[in-house]
């Protein structure tokens, strides 16, 4: 059921509302809470079948229990076909495609995303390669604030301890090098409640404001990667406003299609989310939301093209000759998700329910625990691995992950939890499982049985380092 690149899709905007030669659409009413409407009949017989789902993901390696959707996402065959059509149209006549179709298609995708995240205006939404690019755009602006003298040396950026590695490196590259100070919020793991996170966040803010220092930016994950936990972002943004934090950037690499995303409710200045992880786009595509009341005009794409100065959305839509097809298939992705009951909302709900069910099954089988309460996970969850596996360092997690892949046909990330002082015999390894529409219970049973086999055989990670 491939979507033709020629098709228009009504999802909160009629095609006539698009000013295709410019970069604006009518603003959304502030009270509106848009939802992508189902394009199919409400009859259950109209929805996608199990066999059709298997067909859409038949390109997946059948020998692997693929329970790591969180790292790279997945793309159904119908969307891959639509992407191929866009690629061939470019290759057939690049000049006409660039002059007549590219901006038009990207604007249509941005318009759909605007409704999807409940942004106020399409001008607030740019499409970039991935959340890492989005972070670089925001942090580049921070670096300029220091070099231009707008910020004082020692002014701070606050980030969570579990911030994604590349974002931490970007903060080092842009902020620390420019003279900024970094405040890290330590977070407990396993997590018992959102209140634990809020308490640590408040403590870090107090440390950050010591000696009259200004906190210019808070970088907050929506769903942390490793270990994965849904962060109470609305509460943390509110605290930032109350405590005088100048700007807030939500790094939501696992946002769209994984958990609830609403710009009006969250209230951040910037929000970045990949669409290739949980929204079925081909890699790579991400959105960067920049609230219009924030310093939108100060943001620029790190790759400077001849569109420089025309606004971030236009700059991002052309960074030189490259494959823009992932940015053009968003209408086809909407067509795909609307084949499921409840559309993307229904998919999120079922993924959450299933990942919790499978997490509890594994924790019971291994006599361990979950990494957080079920309400603090979305479509991923952490499960403690048996302590007898002897996971004692990061290298052990890599070796064990490779062993599970090569010997048992299971793909799952593993997190190393450093024991606290005085802890002995504690759980130091956690598996992060994902659930997406293509997953079956057998995938998780395969992981359960593999770990049980290792335990019964007396396996320890030291055997892999010999």
UniProtKB/TrEMBL annotation:
Pfam families: Aminotran_5. Keywords: Pyridoxal phosphate. Coiled coil: none annotated. The lineage of its organism: Eukaryota, Viridiplantae, Streptophyta, Embryophyta, Tracheophyta. Gene3D superfamilies: Type I PLP-dependent aspartate aminotransferase-like (Major domain) (3.40.640.10). It comes from the Eukaryota. Residues 1-38 are annotated as: Disordered. This is Isopenicillin N epimerase. InterPro entries: Aminotrans_V_dom (IPR000192), PyrdxlP-dep_Trfase (IPR015424), PyrdxlP-dep_Trfase_major (IPR015421). It comes from Morus notabilis. Residues 77-293 form the Aminotransferase class V domain.
């Amino acid at each position: 059921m491939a979507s033709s690149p020629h098709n228009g899709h009504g999802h909160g905007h009629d095609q006539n509302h698009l000013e295709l030669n410019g970069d604006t659409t009518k603003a959304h009413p502030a009270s509106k809470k848009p939802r992508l409407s189902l394009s199919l009949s409400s009859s259950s017989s109209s929805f996608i079948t199990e066999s059709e789902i298997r067909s859409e993901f038949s390109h997946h390696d059948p020998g692997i229990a693929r329970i790591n959707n969180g790292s790279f996402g997945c793309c159904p065959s119908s969307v891959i076909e639509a992407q191929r059509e866009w690629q061939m149209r470019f290759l057939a006549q690049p000049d006409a495609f660039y002059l007549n179709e590219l901006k038009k298609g990207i604007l249509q995708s941005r318009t759909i995303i605007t409704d999807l995240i409940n942004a106020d205006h399409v001008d607030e939404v740019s499409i970039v390669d991935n959340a890492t690019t989005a972070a670089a755009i925001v942090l580049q602006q921070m670096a300029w604030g220091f070099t231009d003298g707008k910020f004082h040396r020692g002014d701070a950026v606050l980030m969570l301890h579990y911030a994604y590695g590349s974002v931490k490196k970007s903060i080092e590259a842009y902020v620390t090098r420019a003279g900024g100070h970094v405040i890290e919020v330590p977070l407990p793991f396993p997590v018992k409640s959102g209140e634990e996170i809020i308490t640590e966040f408040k403590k870090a803010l107090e440390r950050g404001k010591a000696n009259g220092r200004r906190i210019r930016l808070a970088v907050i994950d929506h769903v942390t990667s490793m270990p994965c936990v849904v962060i109470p972002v609305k509460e943390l943004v509110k605290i930032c406003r109350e405590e005088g934090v100048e700007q807030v950037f939500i790094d939501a690499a696992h946002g769209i299609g994984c958990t609830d995303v609403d710009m009006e409710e969250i209230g951040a200045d910037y929000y970045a989310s990949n669409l290739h992880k949980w929204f079925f786009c081909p890699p790579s595509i991400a959105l960067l939301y920049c609230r219009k009341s924030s310093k939108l005009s100060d943001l620029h794409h790190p790759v400077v093209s001849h569109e420089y100065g025309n606004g971030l959305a236009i700059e991002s839509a052309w960074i030189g000759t490259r494959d823009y097809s992932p940015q053009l298939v968003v209408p086809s992705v909407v067509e795909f998700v609307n084949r499921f009951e409840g559309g993307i909302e229904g998919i999120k709900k079922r993924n959450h329910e299933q990942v919790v069910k499978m997490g509890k099954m594994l924790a019971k089988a291994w006599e361990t625990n979950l990494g957080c309460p079920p309400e603090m996970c979305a479509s991923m969850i952490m499960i403690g691995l048996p302590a007898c596996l002897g996971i004692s360092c990061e290298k052990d997690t890599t070796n064990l992950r490779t062993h599970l892949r090569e010997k048992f046909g299971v793909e799952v990330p593993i997190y190393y939890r450093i024991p606290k002082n005085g802890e002995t015999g504690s759980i130091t390894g956690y598996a992060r499982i994902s659930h997406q529409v293509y997953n079956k219970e057998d995938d998780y049973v395969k992981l359960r049985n593999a770990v049980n086999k290792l335990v019964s055989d007396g396996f320890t990670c030291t055997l892999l380092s010999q």
